[in-house]
Design a protein that fits this description.
Length: about 150
């Protein structure tokens, strides 16, 4: 029997409301996309989203943990990215606060992961559901590569 281990860099991408998850691989995100998103991740703040009109991104960083919220007039989704074990449980629990989800607050996946919580504002912008999953994983990879490239 042949035991094949996939050693490609990957993250677990989870949607909290549905519990659906999938592996996301670094090779699936173009370097140019990461270069476009990296400036948004250099400091905490509220930024215009590149290439998406009337959408903003609020960034909060802590070590190798990221909490980002996409919003228009209201919050559309919140994205948590854990690129380390320390603090990942707290971030996971923050994402589970005050919302009904399919995932278990006490079962934190192994890092690295990208967890997404859809917010009530998505109902006002259902078209965002077309681009958000790609954006979420691209943002996660941009965050992870910052730390991979700079220790």
């Amino acid at each position: 029997m042949l035991d094949i281990v996939d050693r490609r860099p990957s993250i677990l991408h989870i949607t909290l409301q549905t519990g659906q998850s999938r592996r996301s691989y670094r090779e699936d995100v173009e370097d140019s996309t990461i270069a476009l998103l990296r400036p948004l991740l250099q400091a905490d703040g509220d930024y215009d989203l590149p290439l998406i009109e009337n959408r903003r991104l609020k960034i909060t960083r802590s070590g190798r943990l990221l909490l980002a919220t996409v919003h228009a007039e209201n919050r559309i989704c919140t994205i948590g990215v854990a690129n380390q074990t320390v603090g990942a449980e707290k971030l996971w629990q923050i994402l589970h606060e005050e919302v009904k989800v399919a995932t278990n607050r006490d079962r934190v996946p192994p890092s690295p992961w990208c967890a997404v919580r859809l917010e009530t504002g998505i109902a006002d912008h259902p078209e965002d559901a077309q681009w958000l999953p790609d954006f979420e994983r691209c943002l996660a990879w941009a965050w992870i590569t910052i730390h991979r490239d700079h220790g």
